[in-house]
Amino acid sequence: MLMCFGGAILSSFITGSPLFECFDDTVSVLTATIVWYLINYFPFDLIYRFCKILPVRLLVCSLKEVQRAKKISIGIHHGLHLFPKSPVMCVLLGLLKGVGSLYMHPVSNYILGIWEMKNNPFLNINFTTKISLLAAIVYYCHHLDLIPLPENQLFLVIMGLFVYLRITMILLGLKDPFVPFENAVCKLLFGGTVDAIRSAFERSRSMTSETMPPNTSNLSGTTSSTTSGNANLSSTGTGPAPTSQGLPNSNANSVNSSGLRDTANRQPPSPSDKKRD
Asked: Where is this region: Disordered (predicted)?
């Protein structure tokens, strides 16, 4: 219930009204209760699985965006009724009416015992908050007669834009269409352009230093080293044969020594040996 009536609760908190005054609408409370029960406790999760089908999901999200555009308009009119000379309060009430359920997440997580600073909506502003803020500003500008359109046509334009953007984001998997514009503005206004130019200049300077030809001293050193290497190669060619060529001589010496041993063993016995026999 906190998520379903988050916008009304936060608006009541801002204006100093009773926080749970929104629960006096029995029809809205009964509708929210039935939807909550069917989504969470229907047998085999059939309703939840049915809502996850892409065409049904697109229909539900489109109806949600229509309701969001209507709530923003109601919030602007409520702010004009309570604070007719305060544009900040009017725009803030319109914003809270449209996306109040998103800002009730920290409260619901705190009640459940979960605290995640990474998912804090006050720090990580999502696309829904941005587009709702722009819609609230447009509604207030229409109140100041800055937009020459009837209120019904303006509501139709904002509603169609909300539905179109939501369907496009679901089908194409987009997260935030405002990110490219935000990056461009940040680079222009917050020093991003100067940093980009500086990094590009340093990168080009490092590349040119790497591609410069070597010095003349290095060239002379390399030529002298190559000539000395050639001289060493020529001297080694005219000298004695390598160790591999000396292998047959060692083999021959070993063969000769073994032959001498065999002839010594084959000599006839001496007369003294015969006498001993």
From this structure: 205-277
Listed in sequence order, the residues at least 6 apart from 246 whose beta carbon sits closer than 8 Å to its beta carbon are none
| Of residues 149, 140, 131, 9, the one with CA closest to residue 83 | 140
Asked whether the beta carbons of 179 and 170 are under 8 A apart, the reply is: no
Are the beta carbons of 94 and 161 closer than 8 angstroms?
no
Q: Is the residue at 60 inside a domain?
A: yes
Q: Which two tokens stand for residue 17?
A: 């009204």
The reply to whether 38 falls in a domain is: no
Q: State whether the Cα torsion 218-221-227-233 is positive or negative.
A: negative
Domain coverage including residue 137: 54-189
DSSP 43: G
In 3D space, the residue among 124, 150, 16 whose CA is nearest the CA of residue 78 turns out to be: 16
The domain tally of the chain equals 1
The amino acid that residue 158 corresponds to is: I
Whether residue 165 lies inside any domain: the answer is yes
Q: Whole-angstrom Cα distance, residue 61 to residue 140?
A: 25
107, containing H or E segment: helix 105-112
Structural tokens at position 251: 């083999």
For residue 80, the surrounding DSSP H or E stretch is helix 54-82
Residue 227 in any domain: the answer is no
Assign 262 a pLDDT band (cuts: 50, 70, 90): very low
Alpha carbon 150 to its chain's center: 42
> 72-99 pLDDT, tens per residue?
999 999 999 999 989 999 999 999 999 9
- Tokens (6 digits) for 38: 């069917």
Q: Is the pLDDT of residue 104 over 80?
A: yes
What does the pLDDT read at residue 260?
A: 42
